[in-house]
Amino acid sequence: MPCSWPQxxxxxxxxxxxxxxxxxxxxxxxVVYAAAAxxxxxTVMHVPEMAATRARADAREMLAVDRENHTYCEKWGMRxxxxxxxxxxxxxxxxxxxxxxRVLGVLGSNAN
Length: 112
Prior knowledge:
Elements: H1 13-75, H2 83-111
Helix pairs in contact: 1-2
């Protein structure tokens, strides 16, 4: 007795379109996973660099603020190296810290 396999009808345009859609969906998922993996690798590689860049920027800003403090006190006739100049710089530093705390407090209260 001969064995006969069921005959499949030839694929229609709709079948081809459905198959293409499935392959496209699978490929899209792989592309998203690859992009996510690339983003993770890039982030891991660049976070230390970003931290170092931030530290250098903070150091430059601190030096600029210090120079501004000294220049301001000298503008009012307090020569650098005098007791009055030192007190003036210390007062300006305290004033800037107080202002920074106030700004951070306002920003923190707006976050709630």
